[in-house]
Amino acid sequence: MPEIAIRPMQEADLPVLIGLEHSGQTLAVWQLDRVAEQHRWGATFRLARLPRPAHVEYPRRAAELQTRWQAADLALTALFEGQPVAYVTLKQRSEAGVLWVEDVVTRLNLRRQGIATALLLAGRSWALQGSWRAMAMEVPAKNVPMIELAIRLGYVFSGYREAYFANQEIAAFFFHTLR
After folding, report:
1. What is the reported pLDDT for 45?
2. Based on the structure, what is the number of domains in the chain?
3. 93 is in which domain, residue-wise?
4. pTM attached to this predicted model
């Protein structure tokens, strides 16, 4: 992992962070399989390999990001060589004591090097110091690297919702008990 520093997000970080490539590519997707029979129903996800890379669109619009960051309970920036290269935002929603991971983005050329892990662990450490009992996240089903990261960090799949994001992507929900 590159040597990084993590600190609270600052106003000066915003132009750089908004300018990060928020989308990505994948060679696999989590495909939803549904069963609907008279005495049995359910849904499962299975990993499906793709014949060529597919675009993974970021589920939030760039125009919303600054407003979302300002409303966050915690917004952290990762710095590499003194420059902002990644961020995470955490926010309480309607469930008391549950802190939602709203955004996790890393500069394209530094992805899959542990920076998002470090940001999420710093957010977890902050949550443990407060009264938070759990963390949760919603991830587009196409975002295989983020789903794999969530599972590595102890998040448990807790459901899904079709056409959840503005771009109509399926959201997979993950939950991590802190206490």
Report:
1. 83
2. 1
3. 4-18+58-177
4. 0.90
